[in-house]
Amino acid sequence: MTLQVAAPLLFVLIWSTGFIVARAAAPHADLNIFLLLRFGLTALALGAAALAARAAWPKRGGFWPHIVAGSLMQGVYLCASYWAIANGLAVGAMALLGALQPLFTALLSVAIHRTSFRGRTWIGLATGFAGVALVLAPKLMSSGAGALSPLVVAAAFLSIVAVTIGTFVQKTSLAAADIRSSGCLQNIGGAIVAGALAATIGTGKWDGAPALWAALAWSVLATSVVGVTLLVWMVRKGEATKVTALLLLAPPLAAIEAYFLFGEILTPIQFVGFAMALIGVVVTRRG
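^ thats the sequence. predicted structure below, dont judge the formating
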C-alpha cells in the first residue's frame, strides 16, 4: 500500500477520535488547559524530532506565518469547538458543523482564487454532507440543540472558519518548510491561543483522572503528532477541497466509535448516512 493511499485512511481513523477525546476529557478538566498541554507537548515532540534530524528551520522573520497558521488551524479551531462542547453543544452537533468545512473550503476557493469546480465536486460535497446529517440526526434531535445560546453556536462556526482559513495558509510558502519544524512552530501558535483563553476564561479544573491522562496522551501522540502531520502533508501535496472532503468521514466513524466505547445505538438510517458520506468523499476526490 502506497503512502498516498495509506495516509488518507490512517488520517480519517485518527481524526475521528478527536470527538471522542473531547467527550472523555470534558468532565475532568478545563479544556483550554487540556489543549495548552496538548499543544505544548506536541511542540516539544516535533521540535525534538526536527533537531534530531537537523531539519531546516524558518529564518527568524519566517517564524510568524507558521505561528499564525497554527493559531488558526489548531488554536482557534480546537479551543472554540471544545469551548462550545463544554458549554452545551453536543459532540454530534459539533461534528455536523465540522462537516461543513469542505463546503467552506470550496466556497473560499471560488471567492479568493476564482476556482471553477466541476458539477461532480459539488454533488459529492452535497451527498457527503447529507450523509453526515443522517448519521447525526438521531443524536441531534435528542440533544436539545435549539436551546443553545447564540454565543455557543457562533463559537462553533468560528472554529470551522478558522480551520478553513488555516488550511489555505498551508498552501502558501509554508508548504516548502520541513513538516517537523513547521509543526513545532504551529503548535506554539496553538498553545498561545489556548494559554490566553485558559488565563482569561479558564476554570483551572484538572482532576488528574486516568481517563484524562489517557486522553491527553492519545491527543498528543496520535491526533496531533500523527494526525495533524498527515493533514498538513496531504494539504501540501493535493488540492485543499479534496483533502478536507475526507473530514466528512470523521463524524460517521465517531458515531461507530461511540457505539463501542459508550454504548450509543446506531440506527439503520445512520448506516445509510455513513454510506452516503463515503460516496460523497469518493465523488469529491475524483471531481
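The chain has one domain: 3-286.
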